[in-house]
Input
Amino acid sequence: MRANHAFLAVAVLAGLLPLVGANAAYVLSASAGFVPECNPYLSGCTSVSATGRNPPGSFVYKGTMMPAAVFMLVYWFLAGRWLAAHGDRSLRCRALPWLGLVAAVFLVVYTTVLGHVGEWFAIQRRIGVVGYLSATFFGQLLFVSRIATLMREGRLAIPRWIYVAKLSLCGAMLLLGLAVIPAPLFLSDMDTVERVLEWDFSLLLVLFFPLTAFAWHYDRFGADFFVRK
Output
């Protein structure tokens, strides 16, 4: 069976849309004077959310994040089906689509209220972004662990570099998250530190998705559609 190109496109777009959307929104917002001009991944001069609060950046940001939530939802469904096709009947495999649903809902909530003023909207925005990042990262950890198990048992054969790359991304994200704990002991400007970590963590998070397209292409992951007569 040939790899289904639609499935590959889902994995690529799940990562490419938020990556392009956030960076394009930053360029537009900086050009319009709403955020400082810098390299946000290194200097943390502005937050990711700030790039999507005012037009024209907000049009691009929301216009990419909403469909990205849909692609991520489909991605996690396909990820679960792919593992199941290799004989994975574990609870962690069955949990992936549900984690994808939770992440997608939180991303939609966050994107919807972004730009609205008020404490209630700020609370919803914080809940949305934390829920999205947490559910997605947890799903990625489970996904990598199941890939490792299937490869070790000989039920899945994909290039090892794909697994290593995914594991490295998860490890880097975990280190970024842990770096927040001792940071106040050495740095005074925690707002800047948190913004840098936010940009870098988000980058690593979305790079995880396109890597799956390589695995699916190599494994010829696809589906046959037929009509009962």
